[in-house]
Amino acid sequence: MSLKTALTNFNSGENPELSVLDIGHEDYLAIVNPDSAFWSLCRKDKLADTLTSKKFNESLKAKLPSFNKEMDTLRYGLLPSAVYFNPTERCNLNCQYCYIPSELRKNGVHMDKDTIIKSLAVLKDYFKSVITDGRLPSIIFHGSEPMLNKDAMFAAISMFKNDFDFGIQSNATLIDDEAAKFIIENNVGLGISIDGPDAKTGDSVRKDWNGSGYFANVIKVLEKFRDYPRFNVICTVNKENMKTLKKTVKFFHDAGVKVCMLNTLRCTQESSRSLKPDEREVAKYFIEALDYSHELYKKTGRKMVVANFANILLGILAPTARKLMCDISPCGGGRSFFAVSAKGDMFPCSEFIGLEEFNGGNIFKDKISDVLDSARFKLVSQRKIEAIDHCKTCAIRHFCGSPCPAEAYTMNGGMDKRGAFCEFYEEQTRYAFRLIADGRENDFLYDEWDEGIKEVLTDKDLK
Prior knowledge:
Blueprint: H1 3-7, E1 19-21, E2 28-33, E3 38-43, H2 47-51, H3 54-76, E4 82-85, H4 102-107, H5 113-130, E5 138-141, H6 150-160, E6 165-170, H7 177-185, E7 189-193, H8 199-202, H9 215-224, E8 231-237, H10 245-254, E9 259-264, H11 279-300, E10 305-306, H12 307-317, E11 337-340, E12 345-347, E13 361-362, H13 368-372, H14 375-381, H15 405-411, H16 422-437
Parallel strand pairs: 4-5, 4-11, 5-6, 6-7, 7-8, 8-9, 9-10
Antiparallel strand pairs: 1-2, 2-3, 11-12, 12-13
């Protein structure tokens, strides 16, 4: 063994573990340290030189402790800063893929105005103890369909508008001119759901309890919020609409949407699993849609960020800059956010509403800190990818996080099981690395995403 090789061992003893990842690029591979999420792109014809570079080895060894510390802070050091708040259990739609049990959506309860206000007062006091840097905690009124309880919800927003950053996630069927005016004037974030570029696609699995669709009504909301900066649209991707993703991207872009999500459906409820698309097939259509969004950006100069993919890209480029907390292990459920049901019950995430074994307590009866520390919450907040078969040896485990724990539990049999879309996340990650290799990553990210971020291991360290 040469002296050079002896000085540059990897994957043995206390030396760093490195995996070589084929990213599907003509010229580049990725080198990944799975534990820290460190990565480097390497030309295929320089792989041996890079792996036997004494300078690369020493630089990586010196900086791995800081990489590991950053990852540990992201995984274990966060405190809650957001609540998904369900002001009602009911919904006027009966979407086939919904993760809320149908009995709750059809016959559930509303939370009255005084009870919502009481809940927000409890949350205000709690957040004073955990957010000390002047930021406002977020309250996202979530579903079922929060606009069914509009008057109570709007009254609470008016009372606490200086204490919380409010958002509403809605199916948009009940947002009239008066509601739109209130949302805009009070600077409330709004996300709406549209599942395709036309009524045939958009209404295919999004119908009311009588089987009628609402696409024509919902698209009117796009115009009401065309220039509103706190507006986004979610398309839930399933086997019925995945082939229309390019047309959907064009439809959203033409409507002036600046941020959208193309989220694969959740498979928490058995009823949704019949709509689960083939993972490789949906990845193909998803990546085609991302490529098309880039074409539209270059053609028009107007960027539309696909937020769920941007989160994967940020998970590679700057893990602590990611905006969503689904794609990390443990996920954000019970750590950076939690959910409150219309009865005041607390769950790690809205995905678990209806699964009573994850009910950690009640906001009116229990201390929030005790609920967060409860055994039921810890089932989610302490779910570690290192304990999940298949994932624990995966090179890209910290770019994915094996979401979603609710899916893993109900669909695959436990928290130690992987989520529903493993291959889909693999293909997203490879695509993200290809963008980075070609220098196109910024075209898919929020403007100024890298403000204040420093590169800690540079090309000079590889030579």
